[in-house]
Amino acid sequence: MNFNQILNHWYSANKRDLPWRKTKQPYAIWLSEIILQQTQIKQGLPYYEAFITKFPTVFDLAKAKEDTVLKLWQGLGYYSRARNLHASAKYIVTELNGIFPITYNSLLKLKGVGDYTASAIASICYNEATAVVDGNVYRVLARYFGIGTPINTTQGIKEFKSLATSLIDKKNPGDYNQAIMEFGARQCKPKNPDCNACPLNKGCVALQKNKIGILPIKLKKTKVSKKYFNFLVFVSDDNNTLFEKRTEKGIWKNLYQFPLIETDNSLTIDNFKKHPLISLYFKSIDFDFSLYNNIDIIHKLSHQHLHTKFWIIKVDKLHTKGLKISKLKALPTPILISNFIDEFNFE
């Protein structure tokens, strides 16, 4: 058997029983692919089931409020995926009369859909011979063929896409694409793969040259930056607080948070009250405050680490319109804020 025949045979015996593999409907496949971008299946599966239950069709998703979509997405991270998902649903319904694009090139016109997602949908739903290349595919191809070109370079992206295209099973591209991704996820794992049990071990260059732990090669990312966040958690006598919607561009766009003061370093109790921005929230400087966490809560994102403190501020009455504390959990928030709301006793 050749390369793709071996993978197809392995897949037929080892594929996981997943709900999106029981359908060819493009909406379900698209939804699963967007959710699983940068997300492991065990984490993404409950979200897929929640979305397909809440929004069984693209029409249901299109007419939903963005806050509802973001709240359901809460905890998955990379919230631009949810915003793009919602925007594309509305585009399909209003501009395409609810008819999903049926080709690779037309799928690329959807917001948030790139080469990988378009290839997956086109091959699985419409049998178009377009090769998927994700992290799992990079790993299988780099190891089996002994390719040392960094996968996160322009040259690497083109080289691996070309190779993947030459290998695809043109008669059954959807199953083949799923086979090579599943093989990378379960057999050719990033660390400590069981090469003795691998059906491709006889032809694997990385195994022969002892490069399993080296390939694929990925250039180092940009240095992760530090940011210092101070959230002001107001608690008034009538159980109101201040909650703001982030409207500026960024990973948390359109999510809600407590008023935020960003500083150059971690604030101490002594210098918190003296900070010039604090006075913006008070008519007078007299207020009671306490620090919820003495040690910074570090929230790690792909490109930055947020060193966070929550300052609890007790006031008789808010000087501006507030939100009932009981309504906090209904709004979409970053998981950092959500965790605090769950843990803090507002009573």
From TrEMBL:
It comes from Ichthyenterobacterium magnum. GO terms for biological process: base-excision repair; mismatch repair. InterPro entries: A/G_AdeGlyc_MutY (IPR005760), DNA_glycosylase (IPR011257), HhH-GPD_domain (IPR003265), HhH_base_excis_C (IPR023170), HhH_motif (IPR000445), MIG/MutY (IPR044298), MutY_C (IPR029119), NUDIX_hydrolase-like_dom_sf (IPR015797). Its cofactor is [4Fe-4S] cluster. Keywords: 4Fe-4S, DNA damage, DNA repair, Glycosidase, Hydrolase, Iron, Iron-sulfur, Metal-binding. Its EC number is 3.2.2.31. It comes from the Bacteria. Belongs to the Nth/MutY family. This is Adenine DNA glycosylase. Binds 1 [4Fe-4S] cluster. Adenine glycosylase active on G-A mispairs. MutY also corrects error-prone DNA synthesis past GO lesions which are due to the oxidatively damaged form of guanine: 7,8-dihydro-8-oxoguanine (8-oxo-dGTP). The keyword 4Fe-4S applies. Coiled coil: none annotated.
